[in-house]
Amino acid sequence: MNDAHLHMVVNHFPIIGIILGFIVLVGGIVLKNKTIQNTAYFLFIIGAIATLASMATGEGAEEMVEELPGIGHEIIHEHEEIAEKLALVLYALGLVSIVGWYLNVKENTKAKWVTIAALVVSIAGVLLGKATGTSGGEIRHTEIRNEGNTASPTSVEKHDDED
After folding, report:
1. Disulfide: which of 17, 57, 69, 110 matches 7 by Cβ 3.0-4.6 Å?
2. Helix, strand, coil proportions of the chain in percent (round to 5)?
3. Residue 86 and residue 155: Cα distance in Å, rounded?
4. Which residue from 96, 136, 95, 138 is spatially nearest to 10, judged by alpha carbons?
5. In terms of Cα–Cα distance, which of 148, 125, 98, 108 is closest to 15?
6. What's 68's DSSP letter?
7. Selected residue with higher pLDDT from 142 and 93
């Protein structure tokens, strides 16, 4: 198993974790259930840990695919930039989640403010996760690229034929 394969295996966990965690956290807030909120915190913490693995394998994956036809440095760089922003958000969310879990266990009155902070940060994470996943998918799946990211010769020919 090489870095590209490892990256493909681990890179889904942070994105899925943030989405599931967000849904669970909203449920915990609506139901006013600290156990459900703690479950969301657990998902966010696992997502932050998985982010470490994803970021650690990203550079090796880049080295393996950047010279392949139709890939190029620009599309990988765009993915890398978005992924770095997502990583920072998920690391912050992991820390907020540790604090939130602790305050919930101690039944501290400030726990609800941390829950609101986690909700706001998780919304940013969901949005960045979507952008990161899409930009990563565009690296090898040319069929999902938008007009600005299309680099393959066949897509240029298709556009010329449409006129």
Report:
1. 57
2. 85, 0, 15
3. 30
4. 136
5. 125
6. S
7. 93
pTM of the model: 0.83
Look at residue 84 in the predicted model and tell me its pLDDT: 97
60 in Cβ contact with 7 (< 8 Å): yes
Is the CA virtual torsion 142, 146, 150, 156 positive or negative?
positive
Q: Residue written as tokens 């993915």? A: 79
Do 87 and 28 meet the contact criterion of CB atoms below 8 Å apart?
no
Query: Which tokens in the block code for residue 79?
Result: 């993915």
Transcribe 87-154 into DSSP letters. Answer: HHHHHHHHHHHHHHHHHHHTT-TTHHHHHHHHHHHHHHHHHHHHHHHHHHHHHH-GGG--GGG---HH
